[in-house]
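Need Glycosyl hydrolase's 3D structure for a figure. Predict it.
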Amino acid sequence: MASAKTPVQNPASAQPSPSVFVNTLMPQPAHLTEQPGALVITPSFTTVEGHFHDARLDHAVTRALNRLKERTGLLIANLPADSASATLTVDVDGPGEAIQSDDENESYSLDVTPSGAHLHAATDIGAMHGLETLLQLVQPDGEQFILPAVSIQDAPRFRWRGLMIDCGRHFIPFPVLLRTLDAMAAVKMNVFHWHLTEDQGFRIESKLFPKLTEDGSDGLFYTQDQARELVAYARDRGIRVVPEFDMPGHTGSWLVGYPDLAGGPGPFHIERRFGVFDPVMDPTRDSTYKFIDAFIGEMAAIFPDPYMHIGGDENNGVEWKQNPRIQTFMHDHNLKDTAALQNYFNQKLLQILKKHDKRMVGWDEILTPDLPKDIVVQSWRGFDSLAAGAKQGYSGILSAGYYLDHMDSAEDHYLVDPIPAKSDLTADQQARILGGEACMWAEYVNGDVVDSRIWPRTAAIAERLWSPQGVNNVDDMYRRLAAESIRLESFGLTHLSQEKIGLRRLAGPSSEEAGDMNALRTFVSVLQPPDFSGIASEHRTTLSPFSALTFVLPPDPPSRHDFEHLVADYLQDPVAAEAGQTQLTGIFDAWIAAEPDLLRMMANSPILARTRPRAEQLARLGTLGSEAVSYLSSGQPAPQGWKARQLALLDQAGRLQCGVRFTVLQPLRDLVNSVQER
Ligand code: ACM
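Structure prediction for Glycosyl hydrolase:
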């Protein structure tokens, strides 16, 4: 029964709650109106499903209630109720599509009043989105939890809101994928793009071609039963699964067991390095297409989604150019270059996909005017190819700007819009931009690290793809992202905890006792991993360990945005900004004070010791900051040459070194540049 109708059980619920709605919704809904009061959550919280319900909706409601129970610490028994008395009514018109497509109606409305909550949706999918919103609305209010009274009408801006995970270059354990799906559902993402094959590993069992995994996976692959389980798990959460079998390049692992597919002589091996390699399929032989047809047919029976991704990226054409038989074929078929030959291959692939009732998705390399307009182009090389495709009549999804392995900030990703405000696309062309996908390439992640590379930044991308274009306040995004990041931990994600675990491992068992962990925490709070090219310069392979500090640090830690703000606020009026001065001085003093503790710790921690130069730089940056603030706050000029010395130090600290980079250099540069010299 609604809590407001049972004042005996919870007297506080008799009055409208005085509390203020703290909006931490992520993504922000399309329309939200705050109402007076709040619904108090009590153990007698009940739910009722309206005239329609099915197993999927029942599961979703049960999961939501279990999460509500954990969030509130209340033993919510969910006793039977009727729609007049239930705290939450979930009113769904119908089940939704038998096979979820990009046309699915995902909208919902949610009305919370002091006496109850009402969720209405056209389908299960919208109801699931609404339940996620409801759970995000839960907030403490003194000694109780409430749902603030709101009226929400919500629907996504884009129909394709995806996350791609490359499970080829490093195998990502199955349970990690399941918890990732939970997290995707929490931020209303609806496509899991499963990159299953790479030069470095073939990750899906084929019963027709068992040597694909026997010879091409190091024993690290998903069984067909697991793939079916994942598809069902995703469907239960409103998420489509689009598998990718990257062809004709990036196929080294296929060719180890099936060298007859190859356009080159071999021998082939599972690739350990990263990059673009020569092994490629032979597009000239019928046997290649027979193999692909059988394989795609086998996969089509496992993956019901209307789309299948054929990759198509980064074929360097080397083996095609070196093979006289393929050269003769190209000459005979009037194919002027290897791009034309790949187009020939794609045409054949398209027929195979059509036969198995699949629409083709591919990376932008596949875009040629010969392909029909019902394919989807995934744009990774740049923004312009997405718009160019839309102008030519092709549907597209944006991934340029959403590459998580580039180690950009959540802010950088957030401000990338598949249809920017200044877009010159017509309404029809804009409608062809289906959405976007965050891409987690796995050169530099394994199962232990991947959560912290995906989350929480992907929640910012999820909001970009769901919420109205005008929702773009970066500070507000970071405020809500911090709240969502903690909520996401309830799915077992380790994106926050793995840093603490990694630091303890690096520091060694006695560090906590010696009190050195504070110094280490100060140090790492202003560090993050290098960008993609920085990590690439280390020439890692699939066999490299993941124990370095780089892999313990999250990209875009809170220090980056917080410190930027602190300095910007201070610089508005340094002489008057006493609080800012105190805060900054405290930070700089901590950097200086950390050095001796860090050096002592590093003397007994060989892996941490590799970052010793950064610890020494941090102390010098502390001195730099401290001096800058004392000049600025006192209004006194610095001596001649001071600035040049500080800028040189900042340049040095900005160089690629030790596999970690500072998050605070630009604001420090702003401080230095604001100082006057005599
Ligand atoms: C890609 O990044 N090669 C799609």
